[in-house]
Amino acid sequence: MNQRARIVMTGEEVATLLKEGRKLQLATINPDGTPHLVTMFYGLSDDGRLIFWTYAKAQKSRNIDRDPRVTCLVEVGDDYGDLRGATIYGTALPYDDVMDAGMRITARMTGQDPEPMRPYVELTGRKRVAYIVEPGRVVSWDHRKLHGSS
């Protein structure tokens, strides 16, 4: 088995990674075709899909409205031998419950019950839109598998 095949994660391992991570790198497509890349906190839907929110007038939102294709990278680990990650190529779909998105994201950002942050989420949510990523293709890696430690 080649090295690339050894480090691929199973669907269950990717789901675990997404539960452990807190931030993703989100790539959208600018009007001129160049990538627009930003780091975002994210939440997870009940079925494990990525949810993020942003200001309605943000460049990423305008890009998604024009072309909903996105690439999301979630990676954890500091040392090369401990890196785990997944790149999710998909489509950003509108997520109508902006408050729910905000509360899910806040829970992951803080690692605590988000209820005390509800007033902040309600205030900032007024100017935000939310998206859920419908995954198409997933590319994953777990460098711990190179040393048999996963």
Automatic annotation (TrEMBL):
Keywords: Oxidoreductase. GO terms for molecular function: coenzyme F420 binding; oxidoreductase activity, acting on the CH-CH group of donors. Pfam families: PNPOx_N (PF01243). SUPFAM superfamilies: FMN-binding split barrel (SSF50475). GO terms for cellular component: cytosol. InterPro entries: F420H2_bilvrd_red/Heme_oxyg, Pyridox_Oxase_N, Split_barrel_FMN-bd. It comes from the Bacteria. Residues 12-105 form the Pyridoxamine 5'-phosphate oxidase N-terminal domain. PANTHER family: HEME OXYGENASE HI_0854-RELATED. This is Pyridoxamine 5'-phosphate oxidase. It comes from Herbidospora solisilvae.
